[in-house]
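Ticket #4471: structure output looks truncated?

Reporter: J.K.
Steps to reproduce: submitted the chain below (496 residues) through the standard prediction queue, then opened the result file.
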Amino acid sequence: MSAVLEMRGISKSFPGIRALSDVDLVVDAGEVHAIVGENGAGKSTLMKILAGVYQPDEGAILLGGAPVRITGPIDARKRGIGMVYQELNLVPDLTVAENITLGATPARFGLVQRRRLHEEAAAVLDALDARISPTALLGSLTVSQQQIVEIAKAYAQRPSIIVLDEPTSSLSEHESQALFQVVRRMREDGIAIIYISHRLREVLDLADRVTVLRDGRQIETRDSAGLTAGEMIRLMVGRDLTDVFPKREVPIGETVLEVRGLSRQGAFEDVSFDVRAGEIVGLAGLVGAGRTEVARAIFGLDRAQAGIVRVNGAEVHARTPEQGVASGIAYVPEDRKRDGIIPSASIKDNISLPVLGRLSTGGWISRARETELATAQVTALGVSPPVIDRPVDTLSGGNQQKVVIAKWLAAQPRVLILDEPTRGVDVGAKADIHEIIGELAASGTAILLISSELPEVLAVSDRIFVLHEGSVSAELSRAEANETSVMHAATGEAAA
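Returned output as attached by the reporter:
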């Protein structure tokens, strides 16, 4: 194979931060080259240099062996570099075809050529073997289908290089398989694919080579053949993490949360389960099975039409999150940026939000008590840097997630619902968050865990309830639960 891309000796500094130091990256035509590393390792900075968003302080970029200077994102696109970011950049109210051709819509005399538009989009989808109708409204598609449309949009520009940044972060492992087929199809077409992901198993399954970054430096580039997840973790964090999802054995107490016959039309039906003190109960299922909808109804974000929720035997009628908190329930949402934090506010202001009443006297907030609370939570959860007046959006993803958890722990809940608690965070932060979860369970908190990462659910759960199309299809003990039994129940096979 020939090198399509060479990045040689790339270095980049920002005020007070050395983001990249002498990094090399070589990607061949028809290769899937994964870049892995903790948040803050330099992956995004390196890709922004490739995309022309940043200019390197030192180093050179070669495309097809020729040195180039990429002046900006438009220049990068003209040079055959396609970027697919973690956040979808599509228009829900337009059709699939309109999204794929966005920016290059076929027109004549100022009028859009609808037939040609659909033919061009259909040709792109066919080339990727993606079974999606070009006339479908984008907003009607599943998240995994929308992700494929995002890739098709980049593919339509006929790039020689495509960068995929966390393309499966919002997908279950089952749904990710369709996307992997698309990636393999592009590899067959000779496209060089740079693949960034925190999911190490999919990196090993998909990538030909892996480059590991740590603290802005290139640690190693290896063939994926023979490489293990454990070796990648050691290279990424500089120490051995024998278990990314450590399970802490704690005594299980009395039932704290009871859910009986919970129903909401079109979302879930007759859902029943319970969680005991010190117990971690996993709620598994494919995306769209109703896991998040059930959690939101328990907490009071959405209203259930039937069913009963009890906390410590007392019936709960949470119509709002405030009532949920008052009942002893806390909910860490799946989308931390949209629902979990106020990004521009400080760590201190975010942590104190649920308990302002407790920190106030006569309507006046005690700044001293607020500072004391935030400092204690930041210290207990290992938020880095531990500067409580720092805006949350300046933190890494893992530390933002710790702030979300700290905010709800300040409310001292009896039930903690964690919806995708480690989505989009690096392997070191995952271990930290699961250590926190283990300590909460040891303190007697009842924990309901939702995750699309099946290894995570299996590793930490004492029991697992599996949802299929809005209904509980199986209850599995820790001894009974494995990838096969959970997936059978999640796809409806166990019930059949």
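Triage note (M.O.): checked the attachment and the full token line is present. The chain has two domains: 3-237, 255-490.
Status: closed, working as intended.
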